[in-house]
Amino acid sequence: MKLKSHHLSLLSRIVRGMVVLALCVSIGLHWAVLQSAAWVGMAVAYSVEKGSVVEGLSDTFDGAHPCPLCKAVEKGVESEQQPKDGQPSPSKTKELKLTLALVSIPHFVFPPVVPEVWITTSSAALSRHERPVTPPPQLG
Question: Is this structure's pTM higher than 0.85?
Answer without folding.
Answer: no
